Each structure stands twice: as structure tokens, then as C-alpha cells.
Amino acid sequence: MMRIDGRLPDQLRAISIEVGAAPYAEGSALIAYGNTRVLCTATVEDGVPAWMRGQQGGWVTAEYAMLPRATLQRTRRERNGPSGRTQEIQRLIGRSLRAAVDLSALGERTITIDCDVLQADGGTRTAAISGGYVALALAVEHLVRSNAIEVKPALTPVAAVSVGIVQGTLLLDLCYDEDSQADLDCNVVMNSAGAYIEVQATAERVPASRFQLNALLDLAERGIRQILDVQAAALAAVLPNNTMSRVQSP
Q: Rounded distance, CA 77 to CA 235, Å?
């Protein structure tokens, strides 16, 4: 099957990460999955939600929004609060990133990851998770360098990608046109240890067999391994001298 953008079925779009894209934030990353671009910023604040007070641990949460012209037609701003879809996405991002850090080592602090979609061409939530991890890692480094915490919390890198079945073919990292035609689409979140954090799969047209689902998870893992490499290269380039770095996958 020839894909819309000429990629092979098991090929990611070009993945790039620009670290330090929002210099006022404690951590930031502008991530691109092909034509999808998401600005991820991390803000560190003292205090935790009321139900966590006194537990000596921290919290990581996320907010997600799409700019009005991130899509082909203008989308109205959500002035009366996030829609159900938006809430579902930001909860997914928050769950994924909490799995990346030892919350007990943060002290009573909250790190908020804001994920703003500048341009949408499929995979916005998966790009937000992968970029959000980079912003989170930089925010944790900021806490260590500013002596706000004595011991750096353990971090386990987290990344995400979409997979799907289109016209009977298993595809990695679906763009919007592919996603809109998919018989089944699936978002997979994993960490660098190879453990699954979340799998969201929906048969839009044709149910999938166990064999197909297993093959999709294998495909997603191969893609996530490549994204983890891009994350690692971006962070390795920027942390020694705190300068902006842009790293792109082959």
C-alpha cells in the first residue's frame, strides 16, 4: 500500500524536537510529528491538590488545547471550559507523564505540562506526550540546579505513537487523512523499559483479530523506540550547556 505521504507502512513521519522553545518556562519543547506541531511547556509551582497535602509528594498534571487555525477550518476557542474530548486527552497526557517521574521526590510541588497544538495533522495527543516528557525532564533538571530539591527524582522516559489498520494494512504514525479512513486506530504509550502505560484502541469500521492487535503493538513499540532515541538526543544536547537544540529523526 502506498501511503498518502509516500512513507512505508512501518515508517514514522520525521520527528523533530526543539528544546527551549519557550524560554520563560522551567522546561519546554516544540515537537513535530510530520506536519503536527505541539508546543509543550512545564511550569513548576509550590503546592499540590488539596487531597495530596501532607503526603510529602508532588503532582504532575497536564492541559491540552488546540489553536483555532491548527486545522483546515477554524475551531472555536473553548471559552466555557474544556470539551469532553479535550478533558480526555489531557487526562491521558497527565497519566502518562506521572508514570515517568518519582512523585515522592518532588516535594509538595505541582508540575503542569501545557500542550498547545500549533498545527494538527493527526497524532496530536501522542506528540503531546512525547514532547511533554522532554519538558518535564527539563523542569526536573531546573529543580535540581536551583537547589529546590536535594536528590534528582528518578525519571523513566515515556513516548507515544499511533498505529492503525487502513484498507487492511497495518500503519505506523497515522496522519489525519489516514486516521480518518482507518478501520481501527490505536494510541500506544510506553516507557523506555518496554512497559505499557496506556493503550487506546477503537475499531471504527472493521473489528480486529488478536493477531492484528499483537502486530499493532509490536509496530508501535518499534516506533516508540525511535522516538525515545530522538528525545534522548535532544536532552543530551541541551542539558550540558543549557542551549537550544534541535534534533531530527532520519
A: 33
pLDDT digits (tens, 9 = 90+) for 107-139: 899 999 999 999 999 999 999 999 999 999 999
Q: Shortest CA distance to 61 belongs to which of 109, 97, 105, 24? A: 97
Q: Quote the cell numbers at residue 215.
A: 502486530
Dist. CA 197–CA 186, nearest whole Å: 13
Among residues 123, 221, 222, 219, the alpha carbon closest in space to that of 169 is found at: 219
50 burial via Cβ count (<10 Å: 0-12, 13-18, 19+): exposed
Strand (E) or helix (H) holding 92: helix 84-98
Q: Let me know: does 69 contact 25? Beta carbons within 8 Å.
A: no
Q: What residue ranges define each of the domains in the chain, with the CATH number in brackets? A: 15-241 (3.30.230.70)
For residues 130 and 31, the answer to whether their CB atoms sit within 8 Å is yes
What is the chain's length?
250
Instruction: Residue 40: name the closest of 25, 52, 50 by CA.
Output: 25
Of 124, 97, 102, 103, give the one whose Cα is nearest residue 189: 97
Instruction: Compute the Cα dihedral for 229, 235, 237, 240 and give only its sign.
Output: negative
- Taking only the tens place, the pLDDT of each residue in 145-202 is 999 998 889 999 999 999 999 999 999 999 999 999 999 999 999 999 999 999 999 9
Query: What type of residue is 167?
Result: Q
Number of Cβ within a 10 Å radius of residue 187? 22
Are 62 and 112 contacting, i.e. CB atoms less than 8 angstroms apart? yes
